[in-house]
Amino acid sequence: MNISKIAPITIAATLAGTACLAAERPKQAAQEFATKAASANMFEIEAAKVEAAKGKDGPAKQFAADMLKDHGKAGPELEAAAKADGVTVPTSIDADSKKKVDALASADSANLDQAYLSTQLTAHQDAVKLFEQYSKSGPDGQLKNTAGKILPDLRMHLVRVQGLTSK
């Protein structure tokens, strides 16, 4: 076969492959965000359930009640946005988060409130970073819009838990 006939075919195939990869990157980024965001949200809910059931400190229990309400609302919003963008969210808590929730559940009552607030501080620091980054540089779509919509609540949660842990 003549090289002049192969070159255009090779170039066309390479360009098609590159276009496919470029089209997949936004979807991959959306899928990664949706998975991390939904996992973080489920962790917040499960940890708050433990605090609400077993905690003793009034402000920590109130924070947990608010987390149940706010994150209970955020989960379906994330799920709907993910579906609109053609990606899925996990339906159960991941293994690492499950271990953290189990550790909270088995904490003695003297240490539970502080342990809960400590996990919430870290979780909200991570969530704010995740949502800030995605709302600024994620691919356009419902997930990006939803990340921007949820971000102010996450920032408020972070400031609040920082205040509770500094006491």
Word description of this protein:
Helix content is 86%, strand content 0%. It is built from five helices and no strands. α1 (3-54) runs parallel beside α3 (95-106) and α2 packs antiparallel against α5.
Helical content band = over 70%
Query: Quick one: overall form?
Result: elongated
> Count of DSSP E strands?
0
Number of helices in the DSSP assignment: 5
Distance between the termini: 78 Å
Write down the secondary-structure element order: HHHHH
Decide which structural class fits the backbone: mainly alpha
> What oligomeric state do the depicted chains represent?
single chain
The proportion of strand residues reads under 5%
Sequence stretches where pLDDT stays below 50 over 5 or more residues: 17-23
> On the 0-100 scale, what is the average pLDDT?
89
Biggest sheet details: none
- Give Rg in angstroms: 21 Å
